[in-house]
Amino acid sequence: MRLVLMGPPGAGKGTQADIVSGLLGVPHVSTGEIFRHNVSRGTSLGLEAKRYMDAGEYVPDGITNAMVRDRLSQEDCRPGFLLDGYPRTVEQVGELSAMLRSSSDSLDRVVELTVDVDEVVDRLVKRATDQGRSDDTEDVIRRRLEVYFQQTAPLTAMYEAQDLLIQVDGLGSIDEVTARIVAALGIQS
Fold first, then answer.
1. Which of 36, 88, 123, 142 is catalytic?
2. Number of domains into which the chain is organized
């Protein structure tokens, strides 16, 4: 199965991606991990990405696309994958489709974890306090969520038009959310 998992900061994407990819027997492909892997190995793409990351800037689509293309071409991704953190732009949606078409594949589903903004803000403020992250104020968190929703609205609309989008309530215990995802995908847990 080839999946994309989307959701705002604090929705539990990483946790759910680990669990669901394990149930499916496919790799959890996180763009954050891809960036860290390339940077730590000193690859040419990693060095280029590091320049942007060190400056606090968005890594351009071209670099991100190349890293994702390389990762998805690896043997463990042939039977499927669960993408977390990609695509994030309309251009990346097109690039992912092109990558998959080149190997005669396509996405099976896009799962979006939906959340109540106020609950997620409370969760992230608590997490920031617990971790001593004074820069994660309620205003900053609300702005990050606002940016996320603005950026992903066109993506979810595209995937909905392609009949790929499944929206799953992302609030509740880890097990409750996993059960909803599993049921929505029609897989055995």
1. 88
2. 1
